[in-house]
């Protein structure tokens, strides 16, 4: 097995902007680490740098504390499973599974025996003599996983292996992957944009955004104690409500002033009151999950009111969208950093390395291939939007009703205007 450490890893494709920027992460021996984030955040690039499929622009990579930047992909002792499966189309299932063993010089009889045993574990014994194009998507991914396992690698690297499957097959294979990796005790780094996969599979989750590490912790930690408004917004369905607010501090008491003439109040004994007393007049962002709001809260001191605009029936519950007059904050934009440009010295170094790589591989690196810069946004972007609330399936209300919701203040998150937690519990 293997531990993996990334120390300020960076990657640039164009010598101008970073696709991954100073990314640091440690994966313990036998740990299941999930890299989670939206499309384009750099998670697959990080995985490919671990695998040796992408050159590292800056920073250091270690396997078992051995410097690995220049170790070839085939010598790193890792096995990779791709989104597409990436099977050899002219080889049978048996041929695909035994191929790594053949390359390692193993005897054909022994390789076939291992393939047969592994196919039984994966439930694909009946497909051993079939070609990949005759298999279902789920079967192809099982073959790809089998080909990775049979090598007995020190680490698995999985790049969205379930994203091309239907919902039922994703659930089934997700459970199998989780059970198999834990039984084998193999270090696993798993890339996904699916929060359900991340929360159910991971020992720890590393949330990425724009090539940077946004938060890392156990599934419970990143969900219940998010470091930033972006993390709070990315995890959870329905999405968290992020409310624009200003702090009013008077006489040792703190109120959070919302739009539409509404406000929430913190108890004087609440430790967050002490944190906010020195922030009087500041704009902050309040995070409230949909299940932290209770219908018919007229008698409660902390409540929000509005007009029920629409209801969505989800079987066991309704999802309500309520017009409150409160400004909402977009979690995708709040706290987003301006893209960092590579320094002139680093750019020259990049192109020298690119030229050497071109000679080695024959791959042409073009200076005119640049990536679009990110929006230069650091403060919250406000918009008029609905408050999202979960309601019991027997709710008596209909669209157009005036409704009031009690807010459970013990479950409210407080972020500064740049999206960083004010009230974060240390972990």
Automatic annotation (TrEMBL):
PROSITE patterns: ABC_TRANSPORTER_1, ABC_TRANSPORTER_2. Pfam families: ABC_tran (PF00005). GO terms for cellular component: ATP-binding cassette (ABC) transporter complex, substrate-binding subunit-containing. Residues 4-235 form the ABC transporter domain. Coiled coil: none annotated. It comes from the Bacteria. The keyword Nucleotide-binding applies. GO terms for molecular function: ABC-type transporter activity; ATP binding; ATP hydrolysis activity. SMART domains: AAA. Residues 362-381 are annotated as: Disordered. Keywords: ATP-binding, Nucleotide-binding, Transport. The keyword Ion transport does not apply. InterPro entries: AAA+_ATPase, ABC_transporter-like_ATP-bd, ABC_transporter-like_CS, ABC_transpr_MalK/UgpC-like, Mo/tungstate-bd_C_term_dom, P-loop_NTPase. PANTHER family: MALTODEXTRIN IMPORT ATP-BINDING PROTEIN MSMX, OSMOPROTECTIVE COMPOUNDS UPTAKE ATP-BINDING PROTEIN GGTA. This is ABC transporter ATP-binding protein.
């Amino acid at each position: 097995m293997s531990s993996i450490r990334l120390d300020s890893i960076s990657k640039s494709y164009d010598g101008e902007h970073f696709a991954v920027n100073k990314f640091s992460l440690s994966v313990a021996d036998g740990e299941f680490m999930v890299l989670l984030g939206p499309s384009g955040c750099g998670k697959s690039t990080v995985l490919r740098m671990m695998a040796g499929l992408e050159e590292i622009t800056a920073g250091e990579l270690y396997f078992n504390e051995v410097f690995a930047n220049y170790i070839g992909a085939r010598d790193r002792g890792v096995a990779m499973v791709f989104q597409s499966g990436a099977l050899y189309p002219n080889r049978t299932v048996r041929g695909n599974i035994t191929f790594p063993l053949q390359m390692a010089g193993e005897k054909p009889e022994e390789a076939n025996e291992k393939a047969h045993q592994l196919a039984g574990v994966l439930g694909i014994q009946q497909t051993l003599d079939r070609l990949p194009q005759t298999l279902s998507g789920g079967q192809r991914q099982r073959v790809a996983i089998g080909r990775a396992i049979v090598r007995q690698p020190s680490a698995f690297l999985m790049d969205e292996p379930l994203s091309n499957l239907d919902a039922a097959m994703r659930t089934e294979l997700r459970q199998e992957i989780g059970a198999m990796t834990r039984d084998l005790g193999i270090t696993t780094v798993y890339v996904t944009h699916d929060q359900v996969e991340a929360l159910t599979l991971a020992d720890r989750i590393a949330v990425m955004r724009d090539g940077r590490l946004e938060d890392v912790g156990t599934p419970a930690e990143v969900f219940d104690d998010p470091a930033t408004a972006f993390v709070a917004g990315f995890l959870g369905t329905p999405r968290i409500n992020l409310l624009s607010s200003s702090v009013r501090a008077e006489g040792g008491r703190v109120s959070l002033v919302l739009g539409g003439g509404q406000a929430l109040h913190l108890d004087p004994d609440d430790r967050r009151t002490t944190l906010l007393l020195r922030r009087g007049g500041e704009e902050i962002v309040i995070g409230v999950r949909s299940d932290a709001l209770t219908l018919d809260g007229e008698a409660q001191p902390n409540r929000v009111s509005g007009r029920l605009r629409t209801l969505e029936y989800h079987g066991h519950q309704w999802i309500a969208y309520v017009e409150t007059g409160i400004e909402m904050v977009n979690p995708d934009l709040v706290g987003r950093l301006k893209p960092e440009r590579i320094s002139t010295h680093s750019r020259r170094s990049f192109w020298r390395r690119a030229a050497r790589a071109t000679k080695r591989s024959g791959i042409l690196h073009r200076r005119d291939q640049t990536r679009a810069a990110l929006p230069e946004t650091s403060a919250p972007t406000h918009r008029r939007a609905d408050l999202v609330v979960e309601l019991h399936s027997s709710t008596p209300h209909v669209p157009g009703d005036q409704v009031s919701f009690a807010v459970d203040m013990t479950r409210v998150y407080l972020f500064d205007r740049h999206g960083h937690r004010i009230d974060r519990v240390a972990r």
